[in-house]
Amino acid sequence: MSARRRLSREDRLVIIRERKKGVSHKALAERFGVTERAIYYTVRTEKERRRETGHRSKTITVTVTPEEAQAFDALLGKHGINSRSDGLRRLIQCANGVFQPDEHMVSELNAFRAALNRVGNNVTQIAKRMNEANKKGMRPSFGEGSLAQMRSLAGFVLDFADQVHSLAERRRSHLTLTVNAALRELADGEK
Q1: Does any domain span residue 140?
Q2: What is the rounded CA–CA span in Å between residue 92 and residue 87?
Q3: Residue 81 lies in a domain
Q4: Domain range for residue 129?
Q5: What pLDDT is recorded for position 172?
Q6: What's in the keyword line of the UniProt record (predicted)?
Q7: Is the residue at 78 inside a domain?
Q8: Which residues, including other chains, have CB under 8 Å from residue 161's CB and lie 6 or more apart?
């Protein structure tokens, strides 16, 4: 059995660079006199090393208004974070707990959807009666019951809008508290 060639650090760097260019594992194995498995391990080991040493290779950009940028900078300053990059990086690192589905909000929105379906059915019935009366050349009859139903419907829509607004505000407040806690925790852990 022949002795296996050992790759130098320079060889490994060339392999990484060539793989990024799309050179096949087989071609690199032949070029460096090693097995394809050695090439796979070299590439995988380099990826792991870069991940462990915090090598950052992805860029994320976001466009915000001047007011949003100013508010974000103020929040970062409040938590002792010196740059936007650090702040965004910390938010991304802790995002797992922040961007989870809110089961309570989902159930409330499902209830709202069901209520809106009922309202939609009522509106459809009223419109149908009005169209039928109009086609017959008659004035639609609106009794006290119909007017009360329409007032109730209008009140429901206004209440619904208030409830959705309240739900969104509660969710926003919760996310603000969660993000602030995550930033504080990450800032405290760095000191």
Answers
A1: yes
A2: 9
A3: no
A4: 96-190
A5: 72
A6: Plasmid
A7: no
A8: none
